[in-house]
Amino acid sequence: MASSAGSDNAPPTVVQPPLSQAVGYIVVVVVGLIIAFVMVLVTRLLRKTVGEDNQKTEMFMTANRTVRTGLTVSAVISSWLWTTAILGSSLMGYNYGVSGPFWFAAGCSPMIVFFALLGISCKRKIPEAHTSLEVVRIRYGTIAHIVFMVLCLVNNIFACANMLLGAAAAISAMTGVHTIAATFLLPIGVALYTFVGGIKATFLTDYFHTAIILIICCYFTIKAFTFDEVGSLGHLFDLVQTAVTRHPVEGNHDGSYLTMTSHGILFGILHLCANFGLVIMDTSYFVKVFSATPSAVVPGYVVGGIAYFAIPWGLGTLMSSIVIGLENSPLFPTYPRQMTSSEVSSGLVLPYAAITIAGKGGAAAIVLIVFMAVTSTLSAQVVAVSSIISFDIYREYFNRFASDRDVIRWSHYGVVFFALFSAGFSTMLYYVGIDLQWTLYMLGVVTCPGIFPMIFTILWKRQSKAAAIVSPVLGMATGLGVWLGTAHIFGGEVSVASTGLILPCVYGTVASAFSPILYSVIITLLKPQNYDWNDFSKERLALEKLEDDLSTVHSRSTHRPASHVEAGGPLAFKSLEFKRWARIAAFWSIATFLGHWVLWPLPMYGANYIFGKKFYSAWLVVAIIWLWGTMLITIFYPLIDGGIQQGIEIYSSFRRQDARVNRSENDKNESRSSETSSIP
């Protein structure tokens, strides 16, 4: 942890919220209800004009598997625009200097791109699936299904708690709204529009929310340099350089904020592992893959993953530099003291930076982007859990012959239940003294055990049933044991404070993530499986006929000899296409990891390089340009790739309906005229 420790020696003065509680409640409640109402209208409009009926399960859960590349890119970026990314990257910048936001971003992009490989493999092998858990059940049976269901639900629960804790703390600091009130009110709008619109509403709100967030982020990049106390990149560098003499960073080379040789790499390792768990074990990512067209999966996740990198890197570097440089200025909210460790770990670095450079307008912008971020990502989590409740619990264990209406009804129950449960769980964590930084550090311990068993389920046909069941359970036990044991060693006790230290969390996360590889391989070698991937295609999982040609071909192919299928025709062509996309996904996965983790940062880390003024300026310029590029891609790509076309279809449908109404009126008038003229 950086330089905030000494600020807790004296009782800190309380920072008064710059906005009134009324503003907070308007954003959290009124804006949320307005967005929900608009999404309800859009959903009904799409059903009326282009036939997207959310009373059908395939539309509610997978958008009829027709989501195109542009909207997939937007959804992928939105899926990682957690309040953690918005607030946490600046927090890490404050703690570790320029290395913090970089490692935060590098801990996100590689696994998003890697997921393209898993996604296209799922689309090829089992195109009618709705969740990853269906894949596990079909291959390994009931016990493995239950084990992975528990792991996925734990992942979703802690992910939502992480989002809500950071969002509620930021909104409370900006407006004075009680943290618990914000925690319970934030999911209301999410539950409403997800209840009605399903996954398509999630995709649409992802687009809308992400566009607003990125516009505000880009606004901060302009506002920062029009603020007199900052003025230019060179002056910001001087401010940060001066701060090193006041508060050197423990663990950084020469105590500098301007070096990659930092303990921030420990957070990078932790964050990389934890985020692999958050992606692989989050069924919402699989739901979005199954919702996309086959040709949209790889470009959607590759472009989305690479574009996303700029958000935590660019925003986190800029805003943490402002706080580091201006913390001793009378303009800073906490002046004359430093931020306390509690304020830092609650994620208030970004809000205080926004207040410093933009006053109440900056505070309002933070409330808005935090609200947009938490509701957008929470929506995906709610859909994921509702899909587990409806498909993996209700349909599988309570009513195998469930009708379309039954599954939709239980999806609705799942939406409401999880929205309330996530708020209640976050409240419990809040009252035992857990904050954003604690959940950010320990998340990987509970999310990582299923990573490699799940990857092997999709990509390795020899993993045995016993290995799939036992290895994640042993991995969870190993991770928890290492985490708590090292917390006791480094902290002298097992407490909230000691379990939130960086080193116990790194050791616990690494053990949780990688020990299942050893367990799975050893158990598999004792009795390996030789699974036939074609067995996946024998399962009929869709509740109604799919329009997707590939699904139709797959369902027909189960009644044909394998030799006939492989000889040629549509399925053979599709298989070649899928293999091509898989090669592209594998290439970009390797390239992204090497670029973000090896070729770019490690030479600077090993050389103990400290940024000079020109290099720091170039670093921020590239980050800001990348951030603006991400904004342009997110806003315009979905419009070009199908958005404008669907708008034209909606307009044409209205024109056709008006024409039918006019013809009907004309026919009635002609009938009346003929009747009148026939009367003597």
TrEMBL record:
Name of this protein: Urea active transporter
GO molecular function, one term: urea transmembrane transporter activity
Pfam family, one: SSF
Membrane topology: Multi-pass membrane protein
GO cellular component: plasma membrane
Sequence ranges of Basic and acidic residues compositional bias: 661-673
Upper lineage: Eukaryota, Fungi, Dikarya, Ascomycota, Pezizomycotina
Keyword Transmembrane recorded: yes
Broad class of the protein's primary localization: membrane
